[in-house]
């Protein structure tokens, strides 16, 4: 029994060593696969972007995460890459994949990454800040029908210090399109429209977002831009 017991310990140690080796190997392969997948995604995105005559940067721009304080940008910073820039339906845009990390508790040793696709589009001029965010399914069920254009909506929440501007922007045709459109949150920050949703920057999602925001801007009446100091849209 004693000899058997002594032989059992080295055997268990060998099993533990093999287990840790297997885990380390799996982690290495996972990291390697992740890097390869990211390189492949960037290559596909670069090819699509250049075929449209747009610009592409894999290294990103650190200023993009600090240029517009507020959602979706985290106060702790983050990384914006890759970055795509160009013109779509007559409007200049910059789009990028924004990644930031949050530590769930003071004692946590691992931070949780959060990923957003962000699309920014130049506006005709500087306007009051306006934010339109989608409600989740539970909130839509509990809320009452739309009371007014500059507050609570059936599918969206609206925040704006200038109710007249919000009412001018959110015409019935705009609200109807937003209710039926794809799930994006967006806001006006000075002379820029910022749209965002969770996930990666892919050619399909980029084009879908650009079309969605262009459809919104096309429906906004020209008088809305007179609330700011910039030029009026034709």
Automatic annotation (TrEMBL):
<keyword id="KW-0812">Transmembrane</keyword>
<keyword id="KW-0472">Membrane</keyword>
<keyword id="KW-1133">Transmembrane helix</keyword>
<feature type="transmembrane region" description="Helical">
    <location>
        <begin position="12"/>
        <end position="31"/>
    </location>
</feature>
<protein>
    <recommendedName>
        <fullName>DUF3137 domain-containing protein</fullName>
    </recommendedName>
</protein>
């Amino acid at each position: 029994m004693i000899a058997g017991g002594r032989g059992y310990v080295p055997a268990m140690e060998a099993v533990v060593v093999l287990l840790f080796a297997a885990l380390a190997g799996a982690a290495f392969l996972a990291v390697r696969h992740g890097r390869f997948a990211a390189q492949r995604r960037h290559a596909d995105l670069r090819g699509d972007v250049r075929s449209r005559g747009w610009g592409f940067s894999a290294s990103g721009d650190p200023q993009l995460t600090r240029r517009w304080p507020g959602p979706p940008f985290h106060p702790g910073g983050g990384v914006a890459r890759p970055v795509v820039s160009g013109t779509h339906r007559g409007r200049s845009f910059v789009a990028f994949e924004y990644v930031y990390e949050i530590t769930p508790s003071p004692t946590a040793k691992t931070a949780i990454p959060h990923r957003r696709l962000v699309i920014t589009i130049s506006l005709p001029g500087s306007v009051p800040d306006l934010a339109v965010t989608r409600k989740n399914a539970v909130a839509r069920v509990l809320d009452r029908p739309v009371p007014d254009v500059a507050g609570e909506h059936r599918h969206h929440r609206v925040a704006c210090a200038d109710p007249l501007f919000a009412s001018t922007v959110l015409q019935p045709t705009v609200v109807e399109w937003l209710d039926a459109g794809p799930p994006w949150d967006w806001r006006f920050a000075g002379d820029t429209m910022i749209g965002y949703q969770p996930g990666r920057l892919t050619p399909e999602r980029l084009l879908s977002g650009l079309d969605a925001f262009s459809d919104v801007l096309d429906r906004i009446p020209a008088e809305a831009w007179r609330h700011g100091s910039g030029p009026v849209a034709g």
